[in-house]
Amino acid sequence: MSRRSRRGRHHGVADTSHQRAVNYSKLRNPLIRQPAFSQDRLEAIHDTALRVIEELGIKVLNDEARAIFRDAGARVDEETLMVNIDRELVASALQSAPSEFVLHGRSADCNVTLGGDHVAFVCVGGAPHISDLDRGKRPATLEDTRNIIRLSEHFDVIHLQSPNVESQDIPVHLRHYQVTESQLSLSRKPFFVYSRGSAQVEDAFAMTRIAYGLSQQEFEAKPWCYTIINTNSPRQLDVPMCQGIIDFARAGQAAVITPFTLAGAMAPVTMPGALVLQHAEALAGIVLSQCVHPGAPVVYGSFTSNVDMKSGSPAFGTPEFVQAAFGAGQLARHIGLPWRGSAATASNVADEQSVYEYLMSAWGSILGGVNMMVHAAGWLEGGLTGSMEKFILDIEVLQTFAEIFEPLASSDADLAYDAIAAVEPGSHFFGCEHTMERYQTAFYEPLVSDWSNFGQWSDNGSLTATQRANGIWKQILQDFEAPALDQARTEELQAFIERRSAEGGAPMV
């Protein structure tokens, strides 16, 4: 299938019959990983993190989690709620946690491997607001959530569904029904479930079993969905985050353990110090998951950056963010786990700042060896807003990364000696046989960018990239057709939602 018909490049009209078919659904990163530290400094960071959780401990607010830690051999103080985890327990957990695993989609072609040199891109997650050129910034609704699910399903360079924007027109105790149903009905890709209490998690698991036609045993045999667990830096795991780790581990589903360590605010102001705290908190969450279910799929997550020390606002795309990404990737490889990184910007609109901060963040993650890059499309305003136009602009970048990952051909014909011999000195290669045989399949065709020169711009070509992106997302949504879901399962899913809603839904506890 051509890039234009598959990937939504709807501006302009062109003959697509000779365009090359591309597939970005399975990506591997062949680039050399950029280290932040020498081996001895890396080991020093790891050792210091072990000292933090062994000697200083982690405050654990969840009663069940403390009991699990205690049963596994950790020292637990019920008065202070502090848990001290020794090195042997950490080593045992890291030995059982899988270095690579597969998240399963509704169809096998949507399965996503996390770990090794595999790369998965995930769009904006958790933003309370949505924005576009037509209506500006506003509180997000269920329809906004569903629209971003549709865009994520359309582009094969987005590999996992995400929490994207919050459906604020639905009460929280009912919201998970509609959001989970939307992911299951509009997409075939592995999807996200919030850890907002055991009742909501179990509802989402039950809906998955219904939609996919799985028994309890079949569901728990493979990871079908994932959650993201944020620690309360510094050194605290709260009630719902602990419960999320426990619930997902017991069910064999994936948890992405992601400390939110901003240097100078919730973490030491030095990057090595911030990474020590990040590493310690991530290890604590990983240990909990493996104490519940040895072999449960977990991802080492990081979101370390710096803040503006005058205002306290998070900063992204900074040199510190990139250095932290290199260090986080190195630490994840050191303990042998898949790594989640991010591509972020603090910009409020889809402007030049949003582009260069996003690119710096993304390159930091890519060169750091990221396996799961979250917020990779549509993130604005430090995560407070999901942008429809920014989503499309970021897809352009992700497709560029996908092309960069492709190995350069190395056949003798590609070396082009005969073509060089056939073209006179001072002439050109536009019309030579070597070019004419290849030009229709040779190069990346941009989604949003216009590579024609100024004098050749058409009225459509003279639009800004953001304006073109506005037309592209609208056309994709207009043409979108949801992947078919068995009618009987659809009806059972709706009946489940109606019954559980009538029962009062599920509280956020």
Structure description:
The chain is of the alpha/beta class and 509 residues long. 45% of the residues lie in helices and 13% in strands. It has an eight-stranded mixed β-sheet with strand order 1-7-19-18-15-13-11-10. A hairpin with a 6-residue loop joins strand 16 and strand 17 (314-315). Helix 13 (388-405) packs across helix 18 (465-479). The relative contact order is 0.15. Mean pLDDT is 93; it is low at 1-17.
Strand percentage, roughly? 5-15%
Strand order of the largest sheet: 1-7-19-18-15-13-11-10
How far is the N terminus from the C terminus? 46 Å
Shape: globular
| CATH domain class of the domain at 94-404 | Alpha Beta
Tally of alpha and pi helices: 19
Q: What's the CATH architecture of the domain at 94-404?
A: Alpha-Beta Barrel
Helicity, as a percent range:
40-55%
CATH superfamily of the domain at 94-404: Trimethylamine methyltransferase-like
Rg (CA only): 24 Å
In the predicted model, the low-confidence regions spanning at least 5 consecutive residues are 1-17
Q: From the helix content, strand content and strand pairing, which structural class follows?
A: alpha/beta
Largest sheet: 8 strands, mixed
Summed over residues and divided by their number, the pLDDT gives a mean of 93
Number of strands: 21
Q: Could you say what the CATH topology of the domain at 94-404 is called?
A: TIM Barrel
